[in-house]
Amino acid sequence: MKNENLLSERKGAVLQVTLDRPKANAIDVATSRAMGELFAQFRDDPTLRVAIITGAGEKFFCPGWDLKAAADGEAVDSDYGVGGFGGLQELPDLNKPIIAAVNGICCGGGLEWALSADLIIAAEHATFALPEINSGTIADAATLKLPKRIPYHIAMEMLFTGRWMDAAEAHHWGLVNEVCPAEQLMNRCHELAAVLADGPPLVFSAIKEVARAAENMRFQDALDGITKRKFPTVDKLYSSEDQLEGARAFAEKRKPQWKGR
Do 234 and 156 fall within a single domain? Predict the structure, then answer.
């Protein structure tokens, strides 16, 4: 899991991935492909249960697409690798929790990268924007995702104007889960990751698959997919040792011992 632009550190069942590409942690095609390979390894490693993503330094989380690389000829519709831009948003079957630790400027494709996570924790000085209009392009993934995450009119204002939003406002609209002092950001994210790593991995996997698939399904069809075990992760969960363990632990008034099988 080594790449000159990516720092990965394992702490038990938690993988921390730090984008470290001076000066601003922008993502070019080569970096995006490496990110996809790294997150695919995380997905496929049964001993890893949670990932934290962040940016190196204190100023930038990620500003998104490397416009200098674009000016040198990289096309906006390049092949960004197995996980799409940033390695996460199009990675198939990524059914493990992801926490984004936003430690500074988070804009454009960097905001889309953060939106690919399941939880977003922001430092007090973090700022958010979708300035793609100023470079003559569309914030593709954010145009699809953001109006579903925060009020429609606020999302469209960000997309149309490119205006900046501070961490407090982002929390107000539900764009981020929590805001904390910068010096506490990573500790807080690791606290949350430890809670998730200690949780039921098969349940988390089913939650992520169902939530993702249900975006394009009628409610009843999605519900039938759960109750009739049409989702692979749900079928695996309903036949697992962990589901029996959960019921037994409840009856015996003890903490469950999850095995992921």
Answer: no
Residue 18 phi, psi dihedral angles, 5° rounding: -115, 120
What string of pLDDT tens digits covers the 261 residues of the chain? 457 899 999 999 999 999 999 999 999 999 999 999 999 999 999 999 999 999 999 999 999 988 777 776 677 778 889 999 999 999 999 999 999 999 999 999 999 999 999 999 999 999 999 999 988 888 999 999 999 999 999 999 999 999 999 999 999 999 999 999 999 999 999 999 999 999 999 999 999 999 999 988 999 999 999 999 999 999 999 999 999 989 999 999 999 999 999
Q: What domain count does the chain have?
A: 2
Q: Which domain holds residue 77?
A: 6-197
Residue type, 231: F
Per DSSP, 210 falls in state H
Bridge partner residues of 8 (DSSP): 17
Task: Say whether 112 is catalytic.
Answer: yes
181, 197, 213: which is the final residue of a domain?
197
Give a yes or no: residue 1 inside a domain: no
Residues 43 and 169 in one domain: yes
**Residues 176 and 207 grouped into a single domain:** no
Between strands 14-19 and 50-55, the pairing is parallel
Q: What angle do CA 141, 6, 91 make, to 5 degrees?
A: 35
Respond yes or no: is residue 132 known to be catalytic: yes
88 contacts 119 by C-beta, under 8 angstroms = no
The pTM of the full predicted model, rounded to 2 decimals, is 0.94
Catalytic residue among 37, 74, 132, 252: 132
Of the residues 9, 112, 169, 183, which is catalytic?
A: 112
